[in-house]
Design a protein that fits this description.
Elements: E1 2-9, E2 15-22, H1 25-34, E3 38-42, H2 46-56, H3 67-75, H4 81-91, H5 93-108, H6 115-140, H7 142-155, H8 159-176, H9 182-195, H10 199-212, H11 217-230, H12 234-247, H13 252-265, H14 269-279, H15 286-302, H16 306-321, H17 332-348, H18 352-368, H19 372-382
Antiparallel strand pairs: 1-2, 1-3
Helix pairs in contact: 4-6, 5-6, 7-8, 8-9, 9-10, 9-11, 10-11, 11-12, 12-13, 13-14, 13-15, 14-15, 15-16, 15-17, 16-17, 17-18, 17-19, 18-19
């Protein structure tokens, strides 16, 4: 059973969030609809639930969150520094006023023998109360800061930096009791090793971690596909993508991933279109819907329908860029991918100035990700009269 996180209109008529355990998201939706929920939106999948459950084994600081709070953390809309600091100050109003009064008294009597000592004491106590929260927040946010750097390094294939970030994450977890689980560390390490040409070591390390974590076979194979992709072994990656789809109970994500791989790496738009038609009938998470839109655009690209391509990719890019700022680092790769396709569509449609703008932002990214097809297509159109 998987715990799926949803938002929608509760029977009370208010917009709420709810978590439902079910075999598939379609079953979870039926459960909520039977309870009177409407306007439902799915926010987690079997993959995110697996990671969440493994995360709970090492970090308890966010345990006991309500569905609404968990949704806020996932979407990056949870109260930030200033809101939490204000709440902290409001709950400490009485003691702050007392200390401020005592400090004022000490300042007025600073000429007495003990005046300066009392002034320093009350000033330090007041500073402690006022600045304790931001100091603690900065300390416990170490993991998040390193994690963001790790994600950025992955997107740009800075594999040595990824390994350094993983080492730092282990240290920050020891210091703060907040970190990422062993399975995720092994997954990122395997990607970095594959990128550095150490594929056998990468697969051996990931396989051991996956077995230890009791990883579902579909998640094991889709992750293995990603490792092979980084190593440039696209045939093996495709084989694992197909296996993941066969093994999955909820096939939506795996269906979209396989279709994108087929049309993006192997130029098989017909097979991708068949998978697209299947995915359109499935219950999809909000993030999957954005990737489905992008998939439509990539299929249109292979069919040389640049008008449709441009429309779909722009829509997908708007979806990705519209995420809360705190979560944008997760979608950096998707955003750059969209801009790569828009460089081509704009060049093909004669909007060369806009095409050059996009290409300048993604040229290095496309080279790193072995997208010679997009680079070649762009250059062909941009050089036409």
């Amino acid at each position: 059973m998987t715990n799926f996180l949803w938002s929608g209109k509760a029977p009370s008529g208010r917009n709420e969030a709810e978590e439902v355990a079910a075999e598939t998201p379609a079953q979870a939706r039926q459960i909520l609809e039977a309870r009177g929920w409407t306007e439902l939106r799915q926010h987690t999948t079997d993959i995110s639930d697996f990671i969440h459950q493994r995360q709970a084994l090492i970090s308890t600081r966010k345990s006991g969150l309500t569905p609404k709070e968990r949704l806020q953390y996932r979407q990056g809309t949870a109260p930030g520094l200033w809101a939490n600091w204000f709440t902290s100050m409001r709950s400490s109003t009485a003691i702050i006023l007392v200390l401020a009064g005592l400090l004022t008294w000490a300042i007025r009597h600073r000429q007495t023998p003990d005046g300066l000592l009392w002034m320093a004491t009350f000033a330090l106590m007041l500073a402690y109360v006022v600045f304790l929260y931001p100091v603690l927040r900065w300390w416990f946010r170490q993991t998040k800061r390193v994690y963001v750097k790790l994600h950025t390094a992955r997107v740009w294939h800075r594999w040595e930096e990824v390994l350094r970030c993983l080492d730092k994450l282990v240290k920050t977890q020891q210091a703060t009791n907040i970190g990422i689980n062993d399975y995720s560390i092994a997954r990122y390490r395997a990607q970095a090793l594959a990128g550095l040409g150490k594929l056998d070591e990468a697969i051996a390390g990931f396989r051991a971690a996956a077995e230890k974590a009791d990883t579902p076979p579909e998640l094991y194979h889709i992750t293995l596909a990603g490792i092979y992709t980084i190593a440039g072994q696209y045939d093996k990656a495709l084989e694992n993508q197909r296996t993941a789809l066969e093994e999955a109970t909820d096939k939506s994500i795996y269906c979209i991933d396989l279709a994108m791989f087929l049309v993006g790496r192997f130029n098989r738009p017909q097979e991708a279109a068949e998978l697209l038609a299947q995915a359109e009938k499935m219950q999809l998470s909000e993030t999957a819907k954005s990737h489905l839109t992008l998939l439509r655009g990539v299929i249109a690209y292979r069919k040389k329908d640049f008008e449709a391509m441009d429309q779909y990719v722009r829509e997908a890019l708007a979806d990705f860029e519209n995420r809360p700022r705190a979560k944008l680092y997760i979608y950096e790769g998707s955003i750059l991918n969209c801009k790569g396709y828009l460089a081509v569509s704009n060049a093909a449609l004669g909007r060369k100035s806009e095409a050059r703008k996009y290409f300048a932002q993604v040229e290095k990214y496309l080279e790193l990700h072995d997208r010679k097809d997009l680079i070649g297509e762009y250059q062909e159109w941009i050089n036409r009269g």
